[in-house]
Amino acid sequence: MLFYRKMKSALGGLCLAALLAGAPEGKAAQLATHEGGAPPPAALELDAAERQWIRDHPEVAVASVQYPLYLFQDEHGHWSGLNNDVLQRIGAMTGLAFVHRESFSTEQMLERLESGAADISTTLAMNDERKAFLDFSHAFGGAGWVFVGRAGAPLLTSLEQLAGRVLVLPARHALEEAIRREYPAIRVRSVKTYAEARALVESGEAHATIENEIGAQLYPSGLLKVGGVVEGRWEADHLALRKGQPELLGILNKALEAFPAEELRAIRLRWLGGIAPPPKSGFCYPLSWWGCWLMFFVGVFGVLSMLWNRRLSAVIRQRLDVERHLGDQLAFQRALIDAMPDPVFVRDPEGRLVMCNKSYEESLSTRFDRVQGRRLIDVDTLPESTARMLHDEFMAQMGSRKTRFSKRRLLFKGGLKDIYQWTVPFYGVDGQLRGLVGGWTDINQRKAEGGAECPRKN
C-alpha cells in the first residue's frame, strides 16, 4: 500500500499518458449515471424541421476522448462521466441516441468532426480557429485554465513570465493560436497529448504547460505543481458540432435551456464535488476567554469528558474518510488503467513488474500473477533477444531519467509488429525515482480499427 501511495500521482498522469497512442483524463470508478426515464420537460418544444431531423437521424455520433471525470470508459468498457450524464439526459428529453466514437487525441477528434466521421464532441473548448468549422451550443458549466510547472520553480501566474521559455501544449490546443499571436516571445512546442506535455515539463525540456483546472488538480505529481489561473481565459463547457447541422444545434440548445438547473448542479456535484479538499473544521473555534473561565469555574468535568470523546470520534471519522477516499481513488485509477485499449505496465528501478493492465496480459498471453515482481529476461513472454534489448533499454532510461517516445518494429512471439512505444520515469513525493511507466500501441491494429470505424462515404 505504501508503494501505491507514493506512485499515486504518477499513475494519475499515466491515465492520460497511456493514451499517447490513443488520447490526452478523485472519485471512485463507476459512479452511477443518470437514469434517463424522466419525461421531457414541457418547455422543450421542437419545430417540425427539428422533429423530422430526429426521425431522419436517430443516432448522433460523438467524437469522444477519455478525459477523467468528464468522459471516460469504466472497467466494463461503458462510457461514463459528467458529460455522458448530460448526453443521457438530453437523449431522454429529445429521443436522440448518442453513440460514442473513441478518439485518441484532440487533433484526431477535430479531424473526425471536420471529415464528417462524427457529429458532435463534448470536450472541445471554443476558439476562433474552431468556430470556422464548428458550431457551439449554449454553455452548461465551465472551468479556468491553469499553469502547470515544475516543482521548485517560481509559481507561474501569467503568460508574461514565459517569455523566452518553452510552453508545451497538445496539438491544436484551444489557447495555442491566441498565445502564438499575442505572446510571440513564448516558444510554443506542440505534442500529441497532455501526458506527453507533462512528461516534458517533468524532465525539464519545457518550462510549463496549460491544463483545465479540474484535470490539473485531479492528477498532481511530485515533480509538478499547479500555478495560477490564466487570466481572462475561461473554458466554458459546450457541445461542439460540425457546421451544416442547424436543426441539431437548435435541438441541443433547446434541451440545454430546458435542463433543470437543480439536476445539472447535482450532476456536476456528483462528479466534481470531491476534487477540492474539504474544509477543515474544529470544535473550539475559538472559544472566548470568558467561556473558558466559566467552564473552568463551573467544573463540569462530565461535560469536558463528553467533549473530549466527541473530538476523538471526529478525528477517527476523519481518518476513516481519508482512507476510504484514498481507496476510492486507487479503485478509480485501477479501473481507468484496465479500461485502456493499449498495453500499459509499471516497473520498479530494478526492472521488476509492479503493475500491468488487462491489455498487457492479453498482448503477451500471460497473467499478472505469473509475471509480478519479475524482469522481462526472467519470463518467457517475449523472444529472448527482444526481452534482453528492452530490459537493457529500461535500465539505461532509468539511469538517464529521460522520457522516451518512439515508433519502432519489435519481434513478438507472434512475429514482427510496428508499434508506437512510450516509457516515462516516475517519482515519489520525495523526488526519488520509483520506476518506469510505459506501454505501446500496435500501429497496424489501430489503423485497421480506425478504418473499420470510419468507412469512406460515397
UniProtKB/TrEMBL annotation:
Q: Where is the PAS domain?
A: 329-377
Matching entries from Pfam families are given as: PAS, SBP_bac_3
Keyword Hydrolase (UniProt): no
Signal sequence extent: 1-23
> Which stretches are transmembrane?
287-309
Output the superkingdom of the source species. Bacteria
Q: Which CDD domains match?
A: PAS, PBP2_BvgS_D2
Q: Which InterPro entries match?
A: BvgS-like_periplasmic2, PAS, PAS_fold, Solute-binding_3/MltF_N
Family (UniProt): Belongs to the bacterial solute-binding protein 3 family.
Q: What is this protein called?
A: Transporter substrate-binding domain-containing protein
